Amino acid sequence: MYVYGVGHFWFLQAIFLILMAVGLADALGLLRRRGALPTAIVLTAGTSLLVEVPEAWDFLSLSGFFRLMPFFLLGYLFAETRNQAIRYRWLALTATLSLFALRSADVFGWIALDPVTDGLLRVSLGVAAIATVLSFRHYFAWKPLAWLGYFSHSPSTSFMYPEPRLLA
Questions:
Q1: I need a labelling partner for 57 at 20 to 30 A (CA). Which of 124, 132, 138, 151 fits?
Q2: In whole angstroms, what is the distance from residue 126 CA to residue 49 CA?
Q3: Do the Cβ atoms of 63 and 70 come closer than 8 Å?
Q4: Are 5 and 15 in contact (CB under 8 A)?
Q5: Which residues contact 104 (CB under 8 A, 6 or more apart)?
Q6: Do 142 and 83 form a contact (C-beta atoms < 8 A)?
Q7: CB-CB neighbours of 67 under 10 Å
Q8: DSSP string across 139-152
């Protein structure tokens, strides 16, 4: 159970690996370079499609690490550039709706996608949908969760968020 992901424990193991990899990359300054995060998102999304970890070698849920890493990096990118990202929210929404329409056509059998295109579509739709939700998140804000969310970040990133106030 501690080496191979069993049930839902694969997620904890994958998150552990993600936090270790991103922490190391951040400590080395690799993610602070201009364009590094979008490049890392594209590379990890490609890796998640191309690399299939055999079950015998899936220590600490390497397969889950590859599947979740692009989405984690996307959240990291939005945390770093949240004000600039809002400018592209309509582009993100358009991309999400277009990819959703293509995915719906595949699901309903109107078109047939090969496995590589299907995998690329799934990852692209996931990234676009998360980017859309993050871009429009101020419309979904709920004060109790926003207040609680402040405490979910480390002290090094708390400068990006206002000091919490008691709810009225």
A1: 124
A2: 13
A3: no
A4: no
A5: none
A6: no
A7: 20
A8: GS--HHHHHHHGGG
- DSSP-derived secondary structure letter, 162: P
Whether 127 and 45 have beta carbons less than 8 Å apart is answered as yes
CB of 94 closer than 8 Å to CB of 50:
no
Q: How far apart are alpha carbons 93 and 136 in whole angstroms? A: 9
* Three-state secondary structure string covering 11-41: HHHHHHHHHHHHHHHHHCCCCCCCCHHHHHH
Model confidence pLDDT, tens digit, residues 11-61: 888 898 899 999 898 888 888 888 888 899 889 888 888 888 777 777 777
- List residues bridging with 4 in a β-sheet: 59
* Residue 125 near residue 47 (C-beta atoms within 8 A): no
Beta carbons of 22 and 44 less than 8 angstroms apart = no
Q: Are 79 and 160 in contact (CB under 8 A)?
A: yes
How many beta carbons lie within 10 A of that of residue 66, not counting itself? Answer: 22
What is the reported pTM? 0.69
pLDDT at residue 163 is higher than 60: no
The two tokens of residue 109 are 């059998």
